[in-house]
Amino acid sequence: MTEPADQTAFRGALGRFASGVTIVSTVLDGIDHAMTASAFTSVSLDPPRVLVCSKRTSRFHEAVLESGIWGVSILSDRGRAASAWFAHRGRPLEGQFDQIPHHRGALGVPLLDASLAWLECRTIGAHDSGTHTILVGEVTWAAVQDDDDDPLLYFRSHYGTIVRSPESEKTVYESGDV
Length: 178
Ligand SMILES: Cc1cc2nc3c(=O)[nH]c(=O)nc-3n(C[C@H](O)[C@H](O)[C@H](O)COP(=O)(O)O)c2cc1C
Prior knowledge:
Layout: H1 7-15, E1 19-20, E2 22-28, E3 31-37, E4 40-44, E5 49-55, H2 59-67, E6 69-75, H3 80-86, E7 102-104, E8 110-112, E9 115-129, E10 132-144, E11 153-155, E12 158-160
Antiparallel strand pairs: 1-11, 2-3, 2-6, 4-5, 5-10, 6-9, 7-8, 9-10, 11-12
């Protein structure tokens, strides 16, 4: 059997994958739950599906498995402090949204104002995989906010945002480039 990769090298490699940052949220028995998550990916366009990987020991994990619904707030760079807050283990559950400007979607989940876009999902699959559960959601609602345009990014344990290329939004390949 093949040995698993060295933990330090594995974490180091993953940390070099720059990602956006989301807050995933749910509500269960009137209590809001949320967690900072960068392991978020689109899965299917039609039907619309996304996934998020949730640590099994997180409080969000238990709540979302029971509620079966979740929101995704794709953070703008104004969401930096909120990202740190919802990643802070041991923060009190009650009132954790009190200082965070937010609104509610059709499913009743809290969605952060400091976002570029929002999704609401119903869980259609929950797959155990090691320390995490891969939650697959059918997207029941999506919206974008055009006032904010700069994403919050995470890279090697640091926050940042993008630097736009002056030439073009898309890479143009010309012969002799490669
Ligand atoms: C930038 C960033 C991205 C994160 N991404 C994930 C993720 O995708 N999945 C996950 O389970 N935890 C992720 N975490 C860790 C959780 O946010 C953290 O464990 C959180 O405290 C869990 O909530 P709890 O304290 O209510 O259990 C991330 C943390 C940071 C700072």
